[in-house]
Design a protein that fits this description.
Layout: H1 7-19, E1 24-28, E2 48-52, H2 58-68, E3 72-75, H3 82-87, H4 90-112, H5 116-121, E4 123-129, H6 154-173, E5 177-182, E6 184-186, H7 195-204, E7 209-212, E8 218-223, H8 224-237, E9 243-246, E10 251-253, H9 254-268, E11 281-284, H10 299-305, H11 313-326, H12 328-334, H13 337-346
Parallel strand pairs: 1-2, 3-4, 4-5, 5-9, 6-8, 7-11
Antiparallel strand pairs: 8-10
Helix pairs in contact: 1-8, 2-4, 4-6, 7-9, 9-11
The structure holds nicotinamide-adenine-dinucleotide and thymidine-5'-diphosphate.
Length: 349
Amino acid sequence: MTGGAGFIGSNFVLQWLATEGTPVVNLDKLTYAGNLGNLQEISADSRYSFVHGDIGDRKLVSDLLGRSRPRAIVHFAAESHVDRSIHGPDDFVRTNVNGTFGLLEEARAYWTELGNEDKVRFRFLHVSTDEVYGSLKPEEAAFSETTPYSPNSPYSATKAASDHLVRAYHHTYGMPVLTTNCSNNYGPYQFPEKLIPLTILNAMNGKAIPVYGDGKNVRDWLYVADHCDAIRAVLSRGKVGETYNVGGRNEKPNLEIVHAICSILDELRPADPVVPHSKLITYVVDRPGHDRRYAMDTRKIERELKWQPGETFESGIRKTVEWYLANETWIREVTSGHYREWIATQYSV
Ligand code: NAD
Ligand code: TYD
């Protein structure tokens, strides 16, 4: 797998070793978003190994594939934050487009040399996002697998480009690829630059909770363990060459998310510096090109692979808040100098 030290990747490794149990090699560059602390509990597990490196390093990837001889590649590694892609798109093109291209080329070289049986069994699973489909009007139907791509941010444009490359490797070379397009995730180990962990941390510490624009942008939220579960279902039962939309059927405006977190904190942390926590909600300047609404039609994965999310938004968000409250050391470690620099850049106006 690639990007296993990030938010979704680390949840995936932990879930994989607890359920499937076959060995995992994790290739990760350890950018600001990668944190080996997420994987401390399995660092000594003989089924797990870590390789520090860039997916765009063709020699490293080629050697690693030759050495570890995987039966599948699950590709999570990416630059993943829309606001950072607005400030500096270069890394997004480098990793999401060029990095995925290099990985595909090396995967193709490895796959081509496999014996017939292994060749048929091999899978390249590309983890992507609902943001490639663009933005929905309130009355429009949710995104399906056949919705035309219409990405609006440098992040979503680079993810769309990588999705197209993955698709082309199936149609042109016959590589056994699969793609998942998932909605917004939340849960343990999410870096506190994204809405939900940022809100939890700021609210606990009596700091302003920044809501962009009018707070009515809608996202479809899915608990991270349910996304990992969906990826495992697609990997084992998905039809080669297909894409699968994944989502929680949980469309909510940002303000509702922020209020839900504040209410849980009012109950669990009545002695925090500012209570009720909702007093901290502050409207700030909107994100440029801010997509209004995302929603996923998940009937295909439900029907064909019998996947269903296990958490409701209410159960998932409570677990998430409780996790952040119980993991202050993790928070201290990730909110170091670089984090403070980002917060100063993004929220200075
Ligand atoms: P993240 O930013 O938390 O983690 C990304 C990981 O990739 C980090 O560990 C980082 O060190 C690693 N990485 C970055 N560039 C690399 C490179 N060049 N080589 C090797 N490793 C590199 O991201 P996330 O939220 O866990 O997202 C994982 C994947 O899921 C991404 O592809 C993202 O587009 C997709 N996705 C995310 C969401 C979401 O809500 N977070 C929703 C749908 C899809
Ligand atoms: P985010 O977590 O960055 O995910 P994405 O942009 O990939 O959907 O943002 C989720 C929503 O929350 C999005 O509409 C932007 C909004 N948002 C805020 O209102 N304030 C914030 O400080 C952040 C980070 C996001």
